[in-house]
Specification:
Elements: E1 2-5, E2 8-9, E3 19-23, E4 27-32, H1 34-42, E5 53-56, E6 61-64, E7 66-71, H2 73-78, E8 83-84, H3 91-104, E9 113-118, H4 130-134, E10 142-146, E11 151-154, H5 156-162, E12 176-179, E13 185-190, H6 198-205, H7 215-227, E14 230-235, H8 241-252, E15 259-265, H9 272-286, E16 291-299, H10 329-341, E17 345-350, H11 353-372, E18 381-385, H12 396-400, E19 403-407, H13 425-429, H14 435-440, E20 443-447, H15 461-470, H16 497-503, H17 506-511, E21 529-532, E22 549-554, E23 557-561
Parallel strand pairs: 1-5, 2-6, 7-14, 8-9, 9-10, 14-15, 15-16, 16-17, 17-18, 18-19, 19-20
Antiparallel strand pairs: 1-3, 3-4, 6-21, 10-11, 11-13, 12-13, 21-22, 22-23
Helix pairs in contact: 5-6, 10-11
Pfam families: Amidohydro_3 (PF07969)
InterPro entries: Amidohydro_3, Metal-dep_hydrolase_composite, Metal_Hydrolase
Protein name: Amidohydrolase family protein
Length: about 575
C-alpha cells in the first residue's frame, strides 16, 4: 500500500484533491485531502502490519492513465521495414530517390520495395502512372504510399506478380485499381486494393513481409505507448493472428502494460457472420483480465482528400458525383441488428457528411426495429473520425447513444487543404468541428489512429491535445500566407484542455466499456495513473506537447519513470 501526497489530482468532480491511496496491489482506496488520507490510515483500514509507503509529489499533477480509443500497434510494428521518402512535391526527386535506393539494395537483398510517403497533393485527379516507376525500377515490385494512407502507387511488376489486369474485378466499392479508358490498371490504387492480392505476389517472389509475431518486433511500439502514458487502447483492426498471440503472450509474461481491446474488420453484411466467428475465436483463445474482444469494424467511406468520402453535396466540378459509400442504410441496419443480437459493438470509419447521416439513420432505424421486436438495444455504435458533419446532424449522437471518436493530431494541417479539390471553402472550413457534439452531451473520445512507425511519435496524447487545442500542426503547418498563424479554420473548433483530458480518459473508458474500472481517479477503480510535471490546464495550448511525464502507473505499479 502507498500514498501519493502533495499532488494536484485530476478528479471527475473537478474538486481539489491532494492525496490518493492505492491498496490491494492495484486499487484506489481513497482520494481526497491529506488529512483524510492520514485518518484513513490511522483508522486501521490498511490491514494489520501492512507497510504504508508515502511519496511526496511536490505539487506535480496526477491524471488518469490515457486511453487511445483507436490506434494500430500491430500495423505500426510491421511497417518498421518501410523506406522513408524525401518530403517533396517534385515527382522527379521521389523517382531519383527510388532508383538510387534500388541500385544500392539489390533484388536479392530487398525483393519488395515499399516506400512512404509521397504528398497526396503531388499528383492531380488522374493520379500517378505505373510507367513512371517502371522507368526507375522494373526488376521487382514497388509500392509507394501516399501521406493519407488511402492511396498507393505501384509499378507494372507488382501488378503482374499480383495477377491484376484489365479483367481483374476490384475487391470492393472503395478498394479499386484506377484504370485507363481501355480498363487497364494505371498503377494508382485506392484504399489498399492491392492487399487482397499480396499472397500471389509473395508466392511469386518467395518472400513475406515481417509480421508482429514476436515481442521483439512489437515491443518498441508498445514501449512508446507505455512511456506516453497510454494504459488502455482500442486496436482499430486486428491484422493477423500472430499479433494477438504476441500480445497474449506478453500479458501472460507480465509485460503487457496496457488494457487492450481488439476489433475484427468486415466489408459487407454477407461476410459479417464469418467475421463474428473469428472474433469469437479470439474471445475463446485470448481473453484475459487485460485483453478483450467485443467490436466489429467497418469502413463506410474513404477520405475527403481523395474524393471518395460520401458527401451530401456534389463534389466540385463533378455533377452527379457524391463520393462513395460502402453500403447504404438498409444493409447497414442489418449489420447493426446482427451485432446487437450478438451483443457486439460496431465501430465505423466515416469521414463524409453523407456517411455520417446514413449511419445515424441506420442506428435510429435499427433501434426502432429492435424495440418493435422486443429486443434490448445493447450494441454500442462508435463513429470514428466524423470529419465532415452537416450542422443539422450535430445533435444526433447524443440522442441516439452514438459514441464519437476523433483523431486529435489531424486537427491542424496534417492533411493540408487537399479536400478543397472536392469541397467548397465553406464546407472545408466546417470540418473537424466537435464542440457542438460535446455541448449536446455526446460522448466524444480521442485517439491517434497511427498506422505506421513513421508517425508513431504523434500518438503521444499531449501532442494530439496541442494540435486540437490550437488547430496548428507543429510538423506540417498550413501555408501561413493563406492561413494566418498556420491555423486551420475555424477558431471555434479549437477544443478545450479539460475536454481533451476527459476525452483521452473518461470518454475513452466509456466507449470501450471499461468505465467501471478505468478512466478516472476514484475509489474502487484501478490505479492507472500518469504523473506529469505541471497542470496541463495551466499550460499555454501551444506548449502542451512539452508537458513532461514523470511516471506512469499501470495496475498500481510504476512501469515508466519514477515517483
Amino acid at each position: 500500500m502507498y500514498v501519493l501526497k502533495n499532488a494536484k489530482i485530476y478528479t471527475p468532480q473537478k474538486a481539489e484533491a491532494g492525496s490518493v491511496i492505492v491498496t490491494d496491489g492495484r486499487d484506489i482506496a481513497y482520494i481526497g485531502d491529506e488529512a483524510g488520507a492520514e485518518a484513513y490510515i490511522a483508522g486501521g483500514k490498511t490491514g494489520a502490519g501492512e507497510e504504508v509507503k508515502t511519496y511526496d509529489l511536490a505539487g506535480k499533477t496526477v491524471l488518469p492513465g490515457f486511453i487511445d480509443a483507436h490506434t494500430h500497434p500491430g500495423i505500426c510494428a510491421e511497417s518498421a521495414w518501410h523506406v522513408k521518402l524525401p518530403w517533396t512535391e517534385d515527382p522527379q526527386v521521389v523517382l531519383d530517390f527510388i532508383g538510387e535506393y534500388a541500385k544500392v539494395h539489390s533484388k536479392e537483398e530487398v525483393p519488395f520495395l515499399y516506400f512512404e510517403y509521397y504528398p497526396t497533393s503531388m499528383f492531380g485527379k488522374e493520379g500517378p502512372k505505373k510507367e513512371m516507376l517502371d522507368a526507375v525500377v522494373s526488376d521487382r515490385p514497388v509500392l509507394c504510399q501516399d501521406f493519407g494512407e488511402h492511396l498507393s502507387w505501384v509499378n507494372s511488376k507488382m501488378l503482374e506478380l499480383m495477377g491484376v489486369d484489365r479483367d481483374t474485378p476490384d475487391p470492393t466499392e472503395l478498394e479499386i485499381f484506377v484504370r485507363d479508358e481501355d480498363g487497364e490498371p494505371t498503377g494508382w490504387v485506392r484504399e489498399r486494393a492491392w492487399a487482397h492480392f499480396l499472397d500471389r505476389m509473395y508466392d511469386a517472389i518467395g518472400w513475406r513481409q515481417p509480421v508482429a509475431s514476436s515481442e521483439e518486433m512489437l515491443a518498441p511500439v508498445m514501449d512508446f505507448f507505455r512511456d506516453s502514458g497510454i494504459t488502455a487502447m482500442f486496436d482499430g483492426v486486428i491484422e493477423t493472428d500472430e499479433l494477438i498471440k504476441t500480445i497474449y503472450d506478453m500479458d501472460r509474461a507480465g509485460r503487457l502494460y496496457t488494457y487492450y481491446d481488439g476489433s475484427v474488420r468486415f466489408w459487407h453484411y454477407a461476410d459479417l457472420p464469418g467475421k463474428i466467428e473469428k472474433l469469437r475465436e479470439y474471445q475463446r483463445l485470448y481473453t484475459t483480465d487485460h485483453i478483450k474482444f467485443n467490436t466489429m469494424k467497418l469502413f463506410l467511406d474513404g477520405t475527403n482528400e481523395t474524393g471518395n468520402a460520401a458527401s451530401i453535396e456534389e463534389l466540385n466540378d463533378s455533377p452527379g458525383n457524391y463520393g462513395e459509400i460502402m453500403m447504404e442504410e438498409e444493409e447497414l441496419v442489418d449489420c447493426f441488428l446482427l451485432c446487437n443480437r450478438e451483443g457486439l459493438d460496431l465501430h465505423i470509419h466515416m469521414v463524409g457528411d453523407r456517411a455520417f447521416r446514413t449511419a445515424c439513420d441506420a442506428v435510429e432505424k435499427a433501434q426502432a426495429l429492435a424495440a418493435g421486436a422486443g429486443e434490448a438495444w445493447v450494441c454500442r455504435p462508435v463513429f470514428a473520425h466524423c470529419e465532415s458533419v452537416h450542422p443539422s446532424d450535430m445533435g444526433r449522437p447524443a440522442g441516439l447513444g452514438i459514441y464519437v471518436n476523433w483523431t486529435c493530431h489531424w486537427s491542424g494541417g496534417y492533411f493540408g487543404d487537399e479536400a478543397l479539390n472536392f469541397y467548397s471553402r465553406e464546407k472545408w472550413n466546417g470540418m473537424y468541428q466537435f464542440n457542438p457534439m460535446i455541448d449536446s452531451g455526446a460522448n466524444v473520445s480521442y485517439s491517434s489512429d497511427v498506422v505506421t512507425y513513421y508517425e508513431l511519435h504523434r500518438a503521444a496524447p499531449f501532442f494530439g491535445m496541442q494540435v486540437a487545442a490550437t488547430r496548428v500542426d507543429p510538423e506540417f503547418p498550413l501555408d501561413p500566407e493563406k492561413y494566418p498563424g498556420s491555423m486551420r479554420p475555424e477558431a471555434s473548433a479549437k477544443l478545450g484542455i479539460r475536454d481533451l483530458i476527459e476525452g483521452y480518459t473518461e470518454a475513452g473508458a466509456r466507449q470501450l466499456r471499461w468505465d467501471d474500472k478505468l478512466g478516472s481517479i476514484e475509489a474502487g477503480k484501478i490505479a492507472n495513473l500518469v504523473i506529469v510535471d505541471r497542470d496541463p490546464c495551466e499550460v499555454p495550448p501551444e506548449e502542451l506537447k512539452d508537458v513532461r511525464i514523470e511516471a506512469v502507473m499501470f495496475d498500481g505499479k510504476v512501469v515508466s519513470g519514477k515517483l
